[in-house]
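Weekly sync, protein design subgroup
Attendees: M.S., D.O., the rotation student, P.L. (late)

Item 1: inverse folding check
M.S. brought a backbone from last month's batch and wanted to see whether the design step gives back something sensible before we order anything. D.O. pointed out we never logged the input encoding, so this time it goes straight into the notes. C-alpha cells as presented (576 positions):
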C-alpha cells in the first residue's frame, strides 16, 4: 500500500464498490466537516487502466462529500488516498486504516500535540505516517500548526478560524500573526480571512521557490512554508526579483547563442497571445517570446512572429523567391525605436529632403518617373487596359500600326531600366516604395534623353482612353490618323445610325450618291462607303478619313458623338 494525496479530478467511483449506485449517497452529515477541515480519513483507491486516474474502492461518501463541497464553490485540496497494489485485500486494508485512525484523536490540534510528542521521542514524519495510516503530507500539516501563536491555535481548536485561513497564517511571521490576531480579537475591526488574508500577508504577491530560475542557495533571505510543507515561498520579494531578472537575462543570452534571431522579454504580467502571432521556425526568422508573471513564473514561447511580420515575409517570398526572402527574414528584428519616435524622425528628415529636392529638378524628374512606374501610397498609376467588350475591336487595335510601334518601344525601354521584357506595360505599380527606390537608382544612371524616352512611354501607357486628355493631346500634337488607321470591319460593324451613315456617305461619295441612297438600309450604305475606300466599283477615295478619326473630333449629325463630342467641346477653348 502506498499513501499519497490525489487531485479530486483524478478520482472516480469504482464499479466494484459494493455501495456503487447511480444516485450519489447522502453526505449531509459529513459535508460541513469536509467543507471546514477537508477529508481527513484516506480513501482506498486503485489505479485505473490509463495510469492517470484512480477508482475509489472504499471511502465513497468522503469522495462525494468532497465533490459536493467543490460544486458549492469551496477550495478542495488533493485528497489523502491509500493506493492498492496488486494482491492487496481491500477489506483488510480498509479495516487496518480504520483501526489505526481510531487511535488518532480527530481534533487536529490534539493531533499536532501528539505528533510533536512523538518527534521529541525520535519518531520521523515517515514513522508517524506509517503508525497512523495517513500520508506524510498530513503529518507535516499538523506539525506546521506549531508555527502559530498559542492563541491562534486555540481559536482554531474552537473552530473560530477556518482551515484555509490557518493554512495562510502558517506562512506569516510572528509579527504578522500578532497584528492579525489583534484585528481578529477586536469586534470593531475586520480581520482578513481566506484568500484576502493571503493578499494581506503578501501584498498581492506570493512567489513560490519552485518558479526560481536561479540556484536557491543564491537567495540569502528567508523562505516560508504552508501547511502542505511541499511548497515554500520567498519572504523577500525584492531580492527574488533581482536574482530572477538576472537569470531571465542569462536565459535570453543563451537562446541568442543557439541561433535565435531575436528574444523578446515581455513586460511583467503581460500575456503572450498566440492568436496575434504565427508559428515560425528559427530558420525563417522566428522569434522567442519570454513571459514573466507577477508570481515570478517564466515561460518561453519559441518560434513565433506577429501576424503582420509573417504576412510580410510571405509577400517577400512571393516577390523575390524563397532564398531572398529567407535572407531578408533573418535580418528582421524588432526596431529599437517606438512608432512615435520613428514618426518624429521621419517627418523631420522628410521636410529637409523636400527642400533640398527643389534645387535639383533633374533628380525630381527621375523620381517622378520612378513613382509613375512603381507607384506608392500617394501614387497609384496603371496602364490603360484598353477595355472593350468586342473581340473584333481588341484584335483591330492590337494589329494597328500605332500599337505595334508602341510595343517595340516598350521592349527598348524595359531594357534600359533592366526590367524583364515581358508583360503588357512598363508601368508595374504595386505601391511598394522599395520598388520605387530600385527604379530611381536605375534612372539616375540614364542620360537626360533616355529619361525623357522612359517618361514618354510611361505617359503613353497611363493615358486613359476615352477622356478629354486624349482629345487635347491629339489636337495639340496634330495627330493625323491616316498615318495609323485603316478602315476595317470592326469599325463599320457597330455603326447603327442611318442618318449618320448617310452623312458619311455624302462625305466620301458626294451629295448625289448620298441622296440616291437616302432610303437604303444602313447595311447597304456602309457597303457603298467601303467600296469608295477600296475602289471596288467606285472611284477610290485616296487619303480619306471619317470625321470620327480626325482631331479635333467631329460628329456627322447635330445629335453628336456622345462623350467624344463632349470631350471635344470641353477642350475647344483651351487647346488649339
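Designed sequence read out in the meeting:
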Amino acid at each position: 500500500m502506498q499513501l499519497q494525496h490525489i487531485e479530486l479530478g483524478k478520482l472516480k467511483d469504482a464499479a466494484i464498490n459494493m455501495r456503487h449506485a447511480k444516485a450519489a449517497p447522502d453526505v449531509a452529515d459529513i459535508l460541513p466537516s469536509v467543507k471546514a477541515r477537508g477529508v481527513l480519513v484516506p480513501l482506498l483507491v486503485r489505479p485505473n487502466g490509463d495510469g492517470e486516474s484512480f477508482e475509489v474502492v472504499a471511502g465513497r461518501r468522503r469522495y462525494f462529500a468532497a465533490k459536493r463541497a467543490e460544486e458549492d464553490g469551496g477550495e478542495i485540496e488533493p485528497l489523502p488516498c491509500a493506493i492498492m497494489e496488486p494482491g492487496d485485500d481491500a477489506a483488510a486494508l480498509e479495516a487496518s486504516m480504520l483501526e489505526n485512525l481510531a487511535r488518532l484523536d480527530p481534533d487536529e490540534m490534539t493531533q499536532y500535540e501528539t505528533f510533536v510528542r512523538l518527534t521529541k521521542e525520535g519518531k520521523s514524519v515517515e514513522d508517524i505516517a506509517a503508525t497512523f495510516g495517513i500520508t506524510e503530507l498530513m503529518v507535516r500539516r499538523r506539525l506546521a500548526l506549531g508555527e502559530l501563536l498559542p492563541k491562534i491555535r486555540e481559536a482554531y481548536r474552537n473552530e473560530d478560524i477556518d482551515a484555509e485561513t490557518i493554512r495562510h497564517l502558517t506562512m506569516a511571521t510572528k509579527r504578522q500573526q500578532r497584528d492579525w490576531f489583534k484585528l481578529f480579537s477586536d469586534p470593531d475591526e475586520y480581520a482578513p480571512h481566506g484568500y484576502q488574508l493571503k493578499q494581506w500577508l503578501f501584498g498581492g504577491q506570493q512567489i513560490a521557490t519552485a518558479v526560481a530560475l536561479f540556484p536557491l542557495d543564491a537567495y540569502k533571505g528567508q523562505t516560508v512554508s504552508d501547511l502542505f510543507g511541499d511548497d515554500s515561498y520567498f519572504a523577500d520579494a525584492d531580492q527574488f526579483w533581482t536574482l530572477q531578472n538576472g537569470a531571465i537575462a542569462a536565459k535570453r543570452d543563451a537562446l541568442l547563442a543557439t541561433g535565435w534571431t531575436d528574444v523578446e522579454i515581455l513586460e511583467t504580467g503581460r500575456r503572450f497571445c498566440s492568436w496575434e502571432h504565427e508559428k515560425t521556425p528559427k530558420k525563417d526568422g522566428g522569434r522567442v517570446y519570454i513571459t514573466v508573471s507577477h508570481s515570478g513564473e517564466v515561460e518561453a514561447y519559441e518560434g513565433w512572429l506577429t501576424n503582420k511580420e509573417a504576412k510580410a515575409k510571405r509577400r517577400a517570398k512571393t516577390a523575390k523567391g524563397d532564398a531572398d526572402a529567407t535572407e531578408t527574414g533573418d535580418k528582421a528584428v524588432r526596431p529599437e525605436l517606438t512608432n512615435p519616435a520613428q514618426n518624429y524622425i521621419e517627418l523631420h528628415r522628410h521636410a529637409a529632403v523636400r527642400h533640398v529636392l527643389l534645387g535639383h529638378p533633374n533628380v525630381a524628374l527621375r523620381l517622378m518617373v520612378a513613382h509613375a512606374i512603381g507607384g506608392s501610397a500617394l501614387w497609384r498609376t496603371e496602364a490603360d487596359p484598353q477595355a472593350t467588350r468586342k473581340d473584333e475591336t481588341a484584335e483591330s487595335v492590337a494589329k494597328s500600326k500605332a500599337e505595334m510601334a508602341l510595343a517595340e518601344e516598350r521592349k527598348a525601354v524595359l531594357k534600359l531600366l533592366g526590367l524583364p521584357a515581358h508583360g503588357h506595360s512598363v508601368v508595374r505599380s504595386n505601391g511598394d516604395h522599395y520598388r520605387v527606390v530600385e527604379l530611381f537608382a536605375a534612372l539616375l544612371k540614364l542620360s537626360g534623353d533616355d529619361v525623357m524616352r522612359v517618361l514618354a512611354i510611361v505617359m503613353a501607357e497611363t493615358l486613359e482612353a476615352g477622356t478629354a486628355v486624349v482629345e487635347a493631346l491629339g489636337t495639340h500634337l496634330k495627330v493625323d490618323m491616316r498615318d495609323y488607321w485603316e478602315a476595317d470591319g470592326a469599325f463599320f460593324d457597330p455603326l447603327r445610325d442611318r442618318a449618320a451613315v448617310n452623312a458619311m456617305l455624302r462625305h466620301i461619295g458626294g451629295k448625289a450618291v448620298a441622296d440616291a441612297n437616302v432610303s437604303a438600309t444602313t447595311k447597304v450604305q456602309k457597303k457603298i462607303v467601303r467600296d469608295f475606300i477600296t475602289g471596288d466599283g467606285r472611284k477610290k477615295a485616296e487619303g480619306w478619313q471619317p470625321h470620327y478619326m480626325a482631331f479635333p473630333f467631329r460628329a456627322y449629325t447635330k445629335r453628336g458623338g456622345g462623350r467624344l463630342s463632349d470631350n471635344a467641346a470641353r477642350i475647344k477653348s483651351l487647346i488649339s
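Discussion: DSSP finds 25 helices and eleven strands in the chain. Residues 172 and 517 are 116 Å apart (CA to CA).
Action: P.L. to compare against the previous round before Friday.
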